[in-house]
């Protein structure tokens, strides 16, 4: 493309400081340096994790461009890039895969050492590619997709099938993959089992889809908002309950409902109290509980260790346990083969300039996934 090697001026949604609305600004996006790739974003999803940066509950360096669930086209590449070329359709990866660290080399690992979940706000080289009004603007989790153009490290990028519809497969960059993988890869749900899913947002619904795909016989959705029950049933839940309808602890309710037979529970909200509730809800001896929702950065959790002593397994799950560069292209191929339906998760598609409206839909509980298109 004619822009290779040049600074690109484009529109981006900037958070100048926490707890303030987005500001649509003209951004200068520098060319990629060695082992970096500049991408034209085609579609990006609004994820609750982005809202955590707005609220200040996840560490980030401000001003920042958030967004981490997207599809784009490679505009240009830096020196030494070998895995993608200009024109390739790609998904940026907030959880990279360097293929060299201990986690990448372990068959069961996926939490690459190159991940930026501690909020450094720069690429691997140590600086940012964004400038606005003469000031540096920082990256978020190595992706920063709420912009017309972004720059990522080569190890944080997956080349996907050119036929994939960008406004759908962007969900594979975070929400869908996280939930679906929590069930089939991290939790390892078994056929005929009973599952309980706490939180019926986009990721929770993806967990349900994973449980169903794994052959679970009973999938119980749990949420305070009963308006989410219909969609949960549509993607595979067998029944749904609201804790507000009961006076006893939800773990006791689930035990009575299932004859004390919840094999797998999933916390997909990111609240400390529901993490302990979910743990207490799975079978005391052989149950597995998976923490899927991103926890608040500064909080510590207390629980009764007897919940684990009796034999339960408590597992964490980042990005569904997938090795991002290896598995994201396969998930896109599975989507094109109609092995799962992402349309069930997308409730709103808006132009990028309406980003604030997209977040209002999230806050009001009206949306499951809002996708912004460019």
Features:
374 residues; alpha/beta; Rossmann fold; seven-stranded mixed β-sheet; 17 strands; 23% strand; omega-hydroxydecanoate dehydrogenase activity; NAD(P)-bd_dom_sf; GroES-like_sf; All-trans-retinol dehydrogenase [NAD(+)] ADH7
Characterization of this structure:
By secondary structure, the chain is an alpha/beta fold. Among the domains are: 176-320, Rossmann fold; 341-374, no CATH class. 25% of the residues lie in helices and 23% in strands. The chain is built from eleven helices and 17 strands. The protein has helices spanning 48-55, 102-105, 166-169, 175-186, 202-213, 229-235, 250-258, 272-281, 306-309, 324-336, 355-363; strands spanning 8-14, 23-29, 36-45, 70-77, 89-92, 130-132, 135-137, 149-153, 157-159, 194-198, 218-222, 239-241, 264-267, 288-291, 313-316, 346-351, 369-373. Strands 3, 4, 5, 8, 9, 16 and 17 form a seven-stranded mixed β-sheet that branches. It has a six-stranded parallel β-sheet with strand order 12-11-10-13-14-15, sandwiched between helices. A hairpin with an 8-residue loop joins strand 1 (8-14) and strand 2. It is globular. The model has no long low-confidence stretch (mean pLDDT 94).
């Amino acid at each position: 493309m004619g822009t290779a090697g040049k600074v690109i001026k484009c529109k981006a949604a900037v958070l100048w400081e926490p707890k303030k609305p987005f500001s649509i600004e003209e951004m200068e996006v520098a060319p990629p340096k060695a082992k970096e790739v500049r991408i034209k974003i085609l579609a990006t999803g609004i994820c609750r994790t982005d809202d955590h940066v707005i609220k200040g509950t996840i560490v980030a360096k401000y001003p920042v461009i958030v967004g981490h669930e997207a599809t784009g086209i490679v505009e240009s590449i830096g020196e030494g890039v070998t895995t993608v070329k200009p024109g390739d359709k790609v998904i940026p990866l907030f959880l990279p895969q360097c293929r060299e660290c201990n986690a990448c080399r372990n068959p069961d690992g996926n939490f690459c050492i190159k991940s930026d979940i501690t909020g450094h706000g720069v690429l691997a080289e140590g600086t940012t590619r964004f400038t606005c009004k003469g000031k540096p603007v920082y990256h978020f989790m190595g992706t920063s997709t709420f912009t017309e153009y972004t720059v990522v490290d080569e190890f944080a990028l997956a080349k996907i099938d050119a036929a994939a519809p960008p406004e759908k497969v962007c969900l594979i960059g975070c929400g869908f993959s996280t939930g679906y993988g929590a069930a089939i890869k991290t939790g390892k749900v078994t056929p005929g089992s009973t599952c309980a899913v706490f939180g019926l947002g986009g990721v929770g619904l993806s967990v349900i889809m994973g449980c169903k795909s794994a052959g679970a016989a009973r999938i119980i959705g749990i949420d305070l908002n009963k308006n989410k029950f219909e969609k949960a049933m549509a993607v595979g839940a067998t029944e749904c309950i609201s804790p507000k309808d009961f006076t006893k602890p939800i773990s006791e309710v689930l035990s009575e409902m299932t004859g004390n037979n919840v094999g797998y529970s999933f916390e997909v909200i990111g609240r400390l109290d529901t993490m302990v509730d979910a743990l207490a809800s799975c079978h005391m001896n052989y149950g597995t509980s998976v923490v899927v929702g991103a926890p608040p950065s500064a909080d510590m959790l207390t629980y009764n260790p007897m919940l684990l002593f009796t034999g339960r397994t408590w597992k964490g799950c980042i990005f569904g346990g997938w090795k991002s560069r290896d598995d994201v292209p396969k998930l896109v191929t599975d989507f094109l083969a109609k092995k799962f339906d992402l349309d069930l998760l997308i409730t709103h598609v808006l132009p990028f300039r309406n980003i604030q409206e997209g977040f209002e839909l999230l806050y009001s509980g009206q949306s499951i996934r809002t996708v912004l298109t460019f």
